[in-house]
Amino acid sequence: MSDTTPAPAEEATPTAPTEAPKDAPAQDTDWKAEARKWESRAKENSDAATKLAEIEDANKTEMQRATERAEAAERERDATKAEAERLRVFAKHSIPEEYQDLVLGTGEQLEANAERIASLIQPTIPGPVIQTEGTQPNTSAGPSDWLRDQFKK
Known about the structure:
By secondary structure, this protein is mainly alpha-helical. The protein has three helices and no strands. The chain is rod-shaped.
């Protein structure tokens, strides 16, 4: 079984005030004067710190706006580069506009996908088929040649 006896509460011992030496009252007056002097300096510094904070906030806002504009310009530049790369790949592989949405990716992946799509949409027929290849042409006169034959005589 567990022992559930409460632990004795710690008693706070009040600290005894130390006795001040006999020259303590003179030091109190000096400390008060010093405290007033530092308080006035702190107020002056507070005003200057407030003005500085306002200026920094204004500059920070301008810097943030400039940073945002620079980031937006970089995003636009990257998008333009990516679009130019896509168009170059489309032209290289002669991919028609209706199939361009099928080509996805960037860089090497874009190139590989474009090659695959191009191989699927290009005709695989080797060329025109000539059925009479290797035979002699027919020299028999056709029905339109009878008139020519009449004038030769």
